[in-house]
Amino acid sequence: METFDLAPAAAELRRIAAGVDDDQLADPTPCGPTPVAGLLDHLVGLTLAFRMAAEKTVPDGGPHADATKLAADWRTRLPAQLDDLVDAWRKPDAWEGMAIAGGVQMPGAVMAVVALDELVVHGWDLAVATGQGYRPDEESARRCLEFAASFGDDPEARAGLYGPVVPVPAQAPLLDRLLGQTGRDPGWRPRSS
Fold first, then answer.
1. Which structural domains are found in the chain, ordered by start?
2. pTM, entire model
């Protein structure tokens, strides 16, 4: 079983989150009707859920994306939970057996890829929504692209995880191909006011 480190993806997400201004919390994101505050709420929840998955504990409920539930201390909580998430997945037993997150059970090694995918893709969502440059590490983006592409174009297989594939040229940058596979338009930008 091949393992990998979530630290590079977590570090980039931490950098992006630190660049979010309070006046951007109501701004739109590529995640449909979810504003920046809702996306941050989702990130706070998923970092906890995927850490618990690595530890083989089951949280009450799963992550949500509710702007009204964004923790007041998200600026300190999210970086701390990213550190905890990375540490949890550095333990060999995190990769063994089954793990549960968001009510879904899967092998630990697959759950680690899902956790990485959440960090990388939502990192881009947050970056583009707040006007920041995004620089995921190539290995993480490659792993996520392989995972996303494994679902093909089948809407049933993609349901609940990704939207319909957005066509992106085969020679496009790695990140753009990943975004297209996850149902995102790499050219998405918030509407200017």
1. 7-156 (1.20.120.450)
2. 0.95
